Amino acid sequence: MRTTGPGQSALLLLDVVDLFAAEQVSYVVIGAMAASVHGFVRASLDADAALSLSPPELRDLERKCGASGLQTEIRYGDDDDPIAALLEVSDVFGNRVDLAMSPAAL
Q1: What does the DSSP assignment read for 66-94?
Q2: DSSP 72
Q3: What is the pLDDT of residues 11-51, one digit of tens each?
């Protein structure tokens, strides 16, 4: 893992992206981190990405994150929620990456 302390969610995202590459998972970085690349700097303690995975693929990704020593939690949205599911990935320092799934993916 790249993180060595709190406040390093961007580094945690790089670790998660390594898992995406190994599993051939397509993703897009969203939220404050994506906005900052375009000159709109916003304070945020986490990193966000959007994925399009089936429920079994999401659970498989959760298991692989856990096997890498990361903590995970899947939360599901209501029927009218624009985020159908969210996989929260965190490390021992409290860094966090939120992986959002669209309703179309589930």
Answers
A1: HHTT-EEEEEE--TT-S-SEEEEEE-TT-
A2: E
A3: 999 999 999 999 999 999 999 888 888 888 887 889 999 99
